[in-house]
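Show me any protein, fold above all:
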Amino acid sequence: MQKGLLSVLLVLVTFSSTMEGKLDKTTEKKEKRVPQTLSRGWGDQLIWAQTYEEALFWSRSKNKPLMVIFHLEDCPHSQALKKAFAEDKDIQNLVDEEFIILNLVYETTDKHLSPDGQYVPRILFVDPSMTVRADITGRYSNRMYAYEPADMKLLLSNMQRALKLLKTEL
């Protein structure tokens, strides 16, 4: 009888130590993996809309302007703008408090979001009435909605302008 109990105990100890090793390996793999977020590096602490339709709904229901960022992951201009955008505390705070934000790595079917062509990076503003603010532009005449890392003050100014227009026009 004692031999039988000892055998069962030995099997249970062996089984539990084997399972512990497997659980540790699974946990290690999960800890090393960096989760993919909707921010794509533009501001991980911010709340990002997943789709254009969702962003429009949030904009309308919260009465906040929508900022749409078009970019590509492998574009050096997009990467440089992303870094400047994510590091600018004033922009991050204003976006967090006053805007609905969406970043897209693909074009939408809404032609209003490409008033002067499909290029990246570009940033457009949409007010809660779903009107694309084509009058809020960057500094280039051939790529009106393009911004560069050196344009963060202009972008901040345009964000404030979008808020001001929201209060005076709606």
